[in-house]
Amino acid sequence: MKRILCLLLIILVCAAFAPPAHADGAVTLKIDDTNVYDGMDKSYQDGYVPRVSNGYATLVLPLIATGDISGNVITATPNLGDASSSPFVFKNYQKTIALNDNAVGGGGTVSSYLVRFDFELKSGRVNGVYPVTTDISAQTADGESVQRSFTSYVTITDGKNPNAPDKTPAPAHQPKIIISGYTIDPDPVVAGGEFTATVTLKNTSDKKAVYNAFVTVSCDSPNFELKNESSIIPLGKIAKDGTVDIEISYKTDLETPAQRYNITLMMEYDNSDAATLSSQGTVQVEVTQPLNVQMDKPRIPESVNAGDTMSLSFQVMNMGRSKVYNARIEISAPGLLPTKTAFIGDIEAGTAAQGKMDIFVGMKSMTEGYKGEDKYGPTSGKITLIYEDEEGRPYTQEMDIFTMINEPVIGQVSAKPEEKPDKESQWWISLLIGGAAIAAITVILVSRGKRKQNEDI
């Protein structure tokens, strides 16, 4: 008997000192199931169901915390299920709810977190019961995470009967939206720059319009930044055989490799029976790296003598990220006659290449198209660098040149033994002497021919 009394005494002492519920620090959220809030027809304990009217489903979820919530705010995120079969229009419904004194039926207020969602319903929704799970997250005053999920059931009765037989057979031809054309401005796009794609979308059906159409835009390159406010572009209704133009703007960064990229357009729309249809198209965009080619200006003497030949050296540097092709240099100035174009060839990115050109100095009047009367004196013109990108598009750079062409220098006669002339710089004298000799022989032959002709007469 004494043992039993001691045991009862121990139980009473333990009960007296037992901590109250949740004294271990655990905080949770529960539904206030006894009160009726705005937007509710019944309390939860009396069988509350979300209200459906005027194309919206209203879900009310009043929550009470069993302890202190950090900042007195919670985050509610609804899960609407599978987008293809759900009756709801999908968008971002997540919201943050603060603790408030909320009015309840019968008068008075309750301190609670009042979660309310107004879900827009699809026009082609099907009758049925659809679960909606609301995920709640918060933190306690001690920084502990609080996570709860509550499932509600939305009953749709104003939509299509899933068991009703089709009143009309499915149409043999469904409308379809396609990309009928597009332009890119500028084209090609230079890496680091912006561009706009103007796309024409066409409803190919000549019998049916499409409704509630919209386009979702995406690109296969992380180097493209969309400049539109949203990647979703609404189109609304497109009449039968109708078209609509949309503009899509992107910015590329300098690291964008030179190649073609795809912008994908996913079109979704309803037909006249409110059945959702979809189609897809692609816009191609060509991106090139900016070319940055520099040429060192060659050293040209301030004055040169007619009859001389000078050799010019050129260095061309490819400072860009893309290879350049068929680089060559031309020169154009009265009296400066290049023997040929200085061909340099292809230049890899980040490298330099050299070229040479021999130029014969003649009289300015020897240059084709020269209209002046002076043979010697100051002359000016251009050195032109020409190169191509990988698509064969030509680019040019020009720099000005200037020099003074002097009359040819002929050596003076002296008593000293005749020195052998420099063949490299005075070869034109031999040409002049030879030309004079040929002219004299030609005159003699012509005179003899005329005398013989007179004698024969």
Write up this protein.
- The structure is a single chain.
- With about 450 residues, the chain is mainly beta.
- The chain has 3 domains: about 25-155, Immunoglobulin-like, CATH 2.60.40; about 175-290, Immunoglobulin-like; about 295-405, Immunoglobulin-like (Sandwich), CATH 2.60.40.
- It is about 10% helix and about 45% strand.
- It contains 2 helices and 27 strands.
- It has helices spanning about 1-15, 425-455, and strands spanning about 30, 50-55, 55-65, 75-80, 95-100, 100-105, 110-120, 130-140, 145-155, 175-185, 190, 195-205, 210-220, 225, 230-240, 245-250, 260-270, 275-290, 295, 305, 310-320, 325-330, 335-340, 340-345, 350-360, 375-390, 395-405.
- The longest helix has about 35 residues, at about 425-455.
- It starts with a helix and ends with a helix.
Compose a concise summary of this entry.
The protein has helices at residues 2-17, 423-456; strands at residues 29-31, 51-53, 56-65, 73-79, 95-98, 100-103, 109-120, 128-139, 145-156, 177-185, 189-190, 194-203, 210-219, 224-226, 232-238, 243-252, 259-270, 276-288, 293-295, 303-305, 309-318, 324-332, 336-338, 342-347, 352-361, 377-388, 394-406. The protein is mainly beta and 457 residues long.
